Amino acid sequence: MSKLFNTKFHPKGMQNLATFEIKEGFIFTTQDHPDGQDLDPWYQIRENKIYPSPTHPQKSPIQYPWYEIVENKVYPTEFHPHGKENVPWFEIHD
Question: The pTM is what?
């Protein structure tokens, strides 16, 4: 199972902690996430883009991707509430 580890560029810090995990195309929080582990997915992956799921706590529109996956790095897009970033917020590792 792959996990998303916060990078030094993530605005909330927690560098090197796996705050999310990927299961069957969906992304769930882990016990290391500040909001705790959630059994409902926060995101879904489609074609190297990460979209908020209908169960995301912010109840955001799900038709726009918040993140883009480039190789094993995850970057916020222009649709993310904090705006586009040219530095990765997460790295994906198995």
Answer: 0.91
